[in-house]
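Case study 2.
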Amino acid sequence: MMRILIGFIALAFLASCGGDDGPPPAPQGALLVFPEENSECTTGTDVNQTSSQVTFRWMASNNTDSYTLSVVNLDTNVPQNISTAATSASLTITKGTPYAWSVSSRNSVSDQVASSETWLFYNAGSQTTYAPFPAQLVHPSSGSTVQMDIANEVDLQWSGADVDNDIESYEVFFSETNPPATSVGLTNASTMELPVGVVSGTVYYWRVVTTDLEGNTSISGVFDFKVL
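Prediction:
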């Protein structure tokens, strides 16, 4: 009987002092609200002839103490970042310019960071027609190493969007030099992938030029990848 009692006491001591409560709760990604995806933002407050202040809004996410708003000028690829505990933040940005925005969620008890989706929008300017958003390169990701298929090809994939919804074509530039200067194919608005021939052990660079029915164009950033 004494041994059983000692056993119960030992178990109680271990439960109170050495129990494993598991990892701390990780934050969850926020749901974006405004500016809306692939939209023209017309509600900014004028700062001057070239800039306006836009208030970005998102939904609160679980297990989150603070958020970091990131807004990237797609013409220059220059980001603006601001941290806040609220679910909105205001930034002064350039009129008539395409932007990408996203929100990162953090908490004080976890080293994990959760990211929202990335939405594109145009900050309204004086123009009445807009160039397409620069294509967002998807695969292969920049800096990656990939395996070619049995045809000695790699499939390039991207996504595109336009406020006016009048994209006409995508032109893919692909070469071993940066920036890539060789046009390797033209696709229509509904085709956002193109296979290209590659050689093992070679580093390649690629970008996409988007053209709409008005003749407006936009140029993506440059991605690079290496073939095994």
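The CA atoms of residues 65 and 107 lie 5 Å apart.
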